[in-house]
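Tutorial, part two.
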Amino acid sequence: MSDYDYDLFVIGAGSGGTRASRVAAAHGAKVAVAEEYRVGGTCVIRGCVPKKLLVYGAHFAEDLKDAKRFGWQVPDECEFDWKTLRDNVMEEVDRINGAYTDTLESQGVEIIHQRATVSGPNEVTLADGTKKTAGKILIAVGAHPSVPTCPGHEHGITSNEAFHLEAVPKRVLIAGAGYIANEFAGIFHQLGAHVILINRTKEILRGYDQAIRDRLLQISLMKGLEFRFDATFEGIEKGEDGCLTVSMSGHEPVTVDLVMFATGRVPNTEGLGLETAGVELDEKGAVKVDEDNRSSCDSIFAVGDVTNRVQLTPVAIREGQAFADTFFGDKPTRVDYGCIPAAVFSHPPLAGVGMTESEAKQKLGSVRVYSSDFRPMKNVLAGRDERALYKMVCDGETDRVVGIHMIGPDCAEIIQAAAVCVKAGLTKAQFDETVALHPTMAEELVLMR
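Running the prediction step on this input gives:
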C-alpha cells in the first residue's frame, strides 16, 4: 500500500494534464486531477478549438463572394449573425469538455473541481482547505494572456474574452503581431470589422520564414488591414460613448470600439505555492524542468505551457504521455523537440516545419532554396490576385530537406505530411522522384525548382 493518498496528483486538466492523468491511470496508478475551471484547458475551452471554428466561420465571407464565379446565385449582401456562430461554437466546446471528462472518468481518474496549490514536496491543498498527498505531483496549469500595464489597460480584452463578445465591433485594435494577433485580425476583418494591428517592432510572426511572413503582410495590407509598427502602448481612455482612444508612441492616437491584447502568454505559476517545495522558476515564471519533465524538487514535475518550452497543444500532449510512460509505464520516453510543425490560421494561413532559410544559412553555411510562387486554381477562377508561396530549404552539401515553409489555402493540412518528410531526412531528389498529384496545391512540393 502507498503511503500517499494518490500515486499521482495532477494540477490542471488541460491537454498535457489530461493525457498524463489518463495514461498514468491506464498503467495502474491511482490518479487525481484538480481543475478550477473546466476540463480541457486553454486549447479546448478558450484557444485553438473555438478559434479554428471562428476561422471557418469567417472564411465564408470570401467563399460566398467567390461562389458567384462558380455559378452560385449568391445575394450581394449576405446577412451574418455573430450570436449564432458564437453560440454554436460554445456548444461544441461544451461537447468536447464533456468528452474529456468522460475519458478521464472511464480510466478511473478522480476529478476534483477545485483550485489546488502545492503545500509541500508531496502535498497539495485544495481551495476548501483539504490536504491531499501524492507520490508525484504534476504541474500542468498552462499559461494566461499577458496584459500591458499601461493606464486604462482594464478597458481591453484578451483572446479569452473574444469568444464571448455580444457583437462584432466595427473597429478593432489588436496589440501584438504573433499568431494570436494575426489569427484574430483575420477573423474580425472577415466578419466586417476594420482592424488595426500595432507592434513594438517592425516584424510580424517572429520565428517564421521571412519571405512567408512578408507575403502575409502584403496580402493583409491588400485586404485592408492596417499596421502600425514601432508602436508602444501609452494609454487607453474610454469615452462617454463607450469608444476607446488609444495613445501610442510614434503614431497618432486612434479611436476604436474594441482593444484586444495579444502580446504573449505568461505561465500560471503565481500563487501556486511552488516555493514551499523548492521548485525553481525561470525569469518568466516558468517551471524549470529537465528532459524527463522533473523540476528541481524530485517529486514534482511539469508539462505544457507552464514550462514555456514550446507553447503548443500537441507538445503538451507528447510531454504528458512521455511523463506517464516513463514513471508509471516502465517505458522511458523523452520528447524530441526537433522538426515541430507549426501553423498560423490567418487569412490566408501559413505553416512551416524545420529551419527557415536564415536559420539554415547560420547553421549549415551552404544551403539551396527552392520555391514555387503561384496563384491557386480556385483563386484564378474566383478572380482573386492572391498568390501562394512555397519554399523548400535544403542542405547545400547533402541535398537533405531541412525546412519547408508555405502560405496559401490548406497549407496547414499539407505541412503535416511534409513534416514527416523533413523529420525522416528525405532529400530534394526524393521529392523530385515522387509523381505529382494533379491538380492539387500539394503537388507544388514535388515540382519546386
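Residues 6-145+266-328 form a domain with the FAD/NAD(P)-binding domain fold (CATH 3.50.50.60). In part three we will examine how such features are distributed along the chain.
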